[in-house]
Design a protein that fits this description.
By secondary structure, the chain is of the alpha+beta class. The protein has one domain. The protein contains 8 helices and 17 strands. The strands form 4 sheets. Strands 1, 4, 5, 8, 9, 10, 16 and 17 form an 8-stranded antiparallel beta sheet that branches. A 4-stranded mixed beta sheet has the order 3-2-6-7. β13 and β14 form a beta hairpin. α2 runs antiparallel to α5. The C terminus is likely disordered.
Length: 372
């Protein structure tokens, strides 16, 4: 696996293909953004209605170790990626960013983003057999919830006794806050932290529904697939026809290019029935109406509607499209002692003064199937 392949993975900006790569991760044992800004789809079982959202791009550069020597490079994406630990503690469910960092490895011949080898109490206990701590790769997207909102004083106060502010959706013609003369704002900036199930469902919708529609409003037809690495045709459907089921299956899995011999997710070649510049819609081009169905951890997304985001409405929310600084905010990597305290687990590592548990720098590490 050559250096150019690592670099291509690190700097790729094809959102659907990149998220598809990381959503299928297999390995594993066992100044921005506050909790009030975290968004989760409303639940149909609770009688809630779908909310309309728009996803928007960020520019994130995340440190990741690469190759046998573990050189630290930057992973560039339009969304944020992190490994997260969670545990049910005496004070309720708590989560924390994995302190082990991230590593780019080759597993079974495929490039894979996995957790790193820096000191992490949760990883240590998971490897030691702890069954009450989880580890998940999370995709975090910036978004705007559409519609009008009121910003009102909360019942909660800060250290100086001043009330915090809460966002409350405007109820329209019967809104009591409008009648009281409270100012309303269009759109609210949020973020959405997605695990494997939700990101898979968003990608499947994008690949099987959105990708059949052109940005001009026309309908697209897949006429072939090309290699994202060398650009040569992998499949010409005029020569090798596929039905719809075969097309969806082909594009959702890595394929080996017959020309450059590299294995990667193929790029669809399309024709539009309305224009000469076929450009498939993706997740950044539309507004979604989304809900959750199911209970507990067994929940699924329901995309009840989607529409192309018109330029006029995009201009109304453009000023809100400021990506969160997750790395120094809500998803900051904590020192081992801080993470252990948050998750209420023993810290097995020595502190800066050399006191306490094991010396993580000299402990054995699992060999990874990895090439420079």
């Amino acid at each position: 696996m050559g250096k150019e392949n690592y670099d291509r993975f690190l700097k790729s900006q094809n959102t659907l293909r990149d998220a598809r790569r990381t959503s299928k991760q297999k390995r594993g044992k066992g100044g921005g953004g506050g909790f009030s800004d975290r968004w989760a789809p409303p639940k149909s079982d609770d009688g809630e209605e779908p909310e309309e959202i728009v996803l928007f791009k960020g520019e994130y550069k995340m440190p990741v170790k690469v190759g046998k020597k573990g050189a630290v490079k930057e992973l560039e994406r339009a969304y944020y990626l992190l490994f997260e630990h969670g545990r049910k503690t005496r004070n309720g469910w708590r989560s924390a960013t994995c302190s082990a960092g991230m590593r780019l490895a080759v597993v079974d011949g495929e490039m894979e983003l996995t957790y790193g080898d820096d000191p992490c109490p949760s990883c240590y206990h998971i490897d030691d057999g702890a069954g009450d701590i989880n580890r998940r790769l999370m995709h975090v997207f910036n978004l705007i919830t559409l519609g009008y909102w009121h910003l009102v004083d909360s019942d909660r106060t800060d250290d100086q006794g001043k009330p915090y502010k809460d966002w409350v959706p405007c109820e329209g013609r019967r809104c009591s806050m409008c009648k009281d003369g409270l100012k309303k704002h269009y759109g609210r900036r949020r973020f959405w932290e997605m695990g494997k199930r939700f990101i898979e469902q968003i990608l499947t919708h994008a690949e099987t529904i959105l990708a059949k529609n052109c940005r001009c409003g026309g309908k697209l037809e897949v006429v072939g697939f090309e290699c994202p690495n060398c650009g040569d045709v992998m499949v010409d459907l005029d020569d090798d026809p596929m039905d719809k089921k075969e097309i969806n299956k082909f594009r959702a899995a890595p394929q080996r290019c017959p020309h450059c011999k590299k294995t990667d997710y193929p790029e669809a070649v399309t024709e539009c029935d309305s224009c000469n510049d076929p450009t498939p819609l993706d997740i950044w081009d539309v507004k979604y109406q989304i809900m959750r169905t199911g209970t507990g951890t067994d929940t699924s997304l329901m995309i009840s509607n989607w529409e192309i985001l018109e330029e006029e409405e995009r201009e109304k929310i453009q000023g809100l499209m400021k990506p969160y600084d997750f790395a120094s905010g809500l998803f900051k990597r904590l020192e081992p002692a801080e993470q252990a305290k948050r998750l209420d687990i023993p810290n097995p590592f020595k502190d800066d003064d050399g006191r306490g548990g094991v010396d993580w720098k000299n402990r054995d590490k699992d060999d990874e199937e990895d090439d420079e």
